[in-house]
Task: structure prediction
Amino acid sequence: MNGAQALIRTLVGAGVDVCFANPGTSEMHFVAALDDVPEMRGVLTLFEGVATGAADGYARMAGKPAATLLHLGPGLGNGLANLHNARRGRASVVNVVGDHARSHKRLDAPLEADIDALAGAVSGWVRRSLSPADVAADAAEAVAESARRGIATLVLPADVSWEDGAEPAGPPPYWYPPVPTEYRLADVAAVLGRGEPTVLFLGGDVVASDEGLLAAGQVAAGTGARLMAETFPARMVRGAGLPDLPKLPYPPEMAMAALAGTRHLVLAGATSPVHFFGYPGVPGTPVPADCTVHVLSAPGEDGVAALRELAAMAAPAAGGQQALLEPARPELPSGELTPRTVSAVVGALLPERAVVVDEVLTSGVGLAELTSGAPRHDWLSLTGGAIGDGLPMAVGAAVACPDRPVLALQADGSAMYTIQALWTMAREQLDVTVLLYDNGSYAILQHELSRVGAAEDGKRAGELLHLGTPALDFVALATGMGVPATRATTAEELADQLRTALAAPGPHLVQAVLRG
Amino acid sequence: MNGAQALIRTLVGAGVDVCFANPGTSEMHFVAALDDVPEMRGVLTLFEGVATGAADGYARMAGKPAATLLHLGPGLGNGLANLHNARRGRASVVNVVGDHARSHKRLDAPLEADIDALAGAVSGWVRRSLSPADVAADAAEAVAESARRGIATLVLPADVSWEDGAEPAGPPPYWYPPVPTEYRLADVAAVLGRGEPTVLFLGGDVVASDEGLLAAGQVAAGTGARLMAETFPARMVRGAGLPDLPKLPYPPEMAMAALAGTRHLVLAGATSPVHFFGYPGVPGTPVPADCTVHVLSAPGEDGVAALRELAAMAAPAAGGQQALLEPARPELPSGELTPRTVSAVVGALLPERAVVVDEVLTSGVGLAELTSGAPRHDWLSLTGGAIGDGLPMAVGAAVACPDRPVLALQADGSAMYTIQALWTMAREQLDVTVLLYDNGSYAILQHELSRVGAAEDGKRAGELLHLGTPALDFVALATGMGVPATRATTAEELADQLRTALAAPGPHLVQAVLRG
Result:
């Protein structure tokens, strides 16, 4: 068999059976080989940023990587921003980047680019397959490395793909994340035993499972530590029956207030927090100067196991019983659409087992509070700050979880980065409801323009942050790509339309018009 | 004044007075400074690929760079593909990439990425401004280097932007491209004098002006050499009154046939041709094995001056008179819409002084022939093979040439890469007519799937190249972004709609439905 066939069979054998693809000429044998391996599901996207963002969302929900198929350096370039987000969230992705045939490489053909530099900037592992005899082993290693290092990128020359002489490789060994040592646990237990103001700062694997959250809650109840989650967790389980877990706020002043007085910050699955951006005269991190940071588990370690052991060591001594959230939903609001009434509609209607993809940024006022007592759900955030991951992640989450409803909470400005994702939702008939927050601006930037101390928002500067001229008609955009869509201007309309969209299978978009 | 103000004033002083922008928080002082320098025109785009592609189109038509404003590594990543195209076409671009404040850099905040690696992969020059006192000189050098090296990227830390103590720098010295030496001219003149089968292979600056083409035509007429242009020139002047200049065909077999029997290939402004991709059993280049390649002028040299001198040396000896194209337009066709009838409609209606942006790829059957006798126009091609440059280049060309009509010939698959460009056309009310070729597929890839010798187009493989499920409604997409649009299914409808769109100011889109 040829290299492409062996590659795809190896991926499938290693459990990688979805490929988000934007193929070009150099990937044609890979495309052709899809016919030979029906276990591999090829999902076409109209832009590489959709493919990589879908792989990000897929990995977060499936707990294993999808492959992407990208076309040389420029195709990889188009996918970089969402690979950045995946990297920041420690999602596993296996990129297959087609390249020129080996003999063509030195000719500097028009598409020639420095794939290795681009791949290296976002990948934990990069390999160029040099012969059909190697490609299967390379693919198996890519899958193995993606479990440890997140993004694994395999560069596949066209002739390595088309030449015969390849054989599939067996699946790579399963990778078990390391468990923190007993010494570390004992140190943290001692810190928690002091009774000083302590925050157990959670993220990564710890907030992605009931078990992690409940163990953390037990530790907090037993020791008096406060629980707090990183601002943008890759995946967070939420809802009634779990401990209340506030997230560290995004604005620097609010973040500093949230951690004020804290003497010990114990990290479990999260890194020590820093502000998203530096500002004149503001320290770079919200951690108080006299606060000591302790690592219970670093990202990539088994934080859930660490918390379970810590709970056994620390909690019984103090003996508190953790409080869990009661089922609670807000009343359906009426009247004007504001960020808060939209949040209340979401809280009132959020379906059980929903996967929420959150790229609303500034407009999510009250959203966490109004959904905290909803039925159990997962919440995916924008981990790396590169906007345009929301709609693609919704694609990937829906492919990973075909039996669960996906609700994409999506701001307008960031929606336009990868709006092409709607087409893939329609093509694959994914059960995604997009709630599009239309505030007609890059609202977060209007806020930032004033907060950085920049001169009074002049007219020309302000115009550069305004999306309203012309207004974006998301109903037209969605229907133009085959996704049924409606527009809501009151809370009642929104509730009706959202309920209908959530109840019907397949993709839908509801444009919530927020003005004034 | 602060760094941002000094930077913008320096750019304006150096003639860079357009900035295609996708700002984020780290660029807020740059945005604020726009109010202070009204000579700088900020053009907002909804995606960085639109900003960089617009800068590409702008540079090709204005003959000077625009600035782009990009948001850290991910923003640069989103713009890489069209910077690749700009680099391949030797267009000058000055990127300003905002970065974290210097004090924030070491904190590994979520948006932290290896900007230098990404910038280095596409730029001829990269600099990180280290203080407000340096930023103006850095900006002046960026403009100077962009003239020589194409893409110049200036990384601008947020605090370098917001701190005071900066002063504008004066404009950089004008850069004159080098002229080939007399020895080289004499060598080439001797080759041309032998009377052996010779092709004068033109590209770059040589095909971008009447003067270059007419000088080349004079050399050809005087020596019996054939004229041929590179396959994808960045900018080519065309139309009645100029010599007929066939382009080297894209398909390898046709390219090899076009150069068969050639003993000497004389390069003027072009590099020696290679096939776009390698294929099993096909040589990498269409240049015959027994053909000698001679460089009259390399890209970046003054090829027009070289040809003018060569014409004076070589042409009078043989004394032929060059044939120039007579004004000629095809009849308006009727009936079914096929690639050829669409080409005839374009040839019949192409306005005088139009700027044609060509990203139709496979669908441009007969297009070159049917427009060759049209009134004088410019033709911009996809130089680097990274699809998604067409609509953005149309934005940039229209900003550069507000008094000229821009006609974007745009394939459907590549249109979807940067469809957000339509919104900027509407926002700026640019005089762009988009003729959207809707064939419902990545037709070029369906062709490639069979031609690479891949297995018979299986059903699953073929589906991955099909854009028809669901069908893309470009009329809805365009109107959703504020661009009036119509749909044509016959040649008569297309002619009517195209005529109307070309006659009216502002942007329009005509979706030409090609089926079967």
Observations:
- Chain B touches chain A through 103 residues (CB under 8 Å).
- The longest strand of chain B covers residues 93-99.
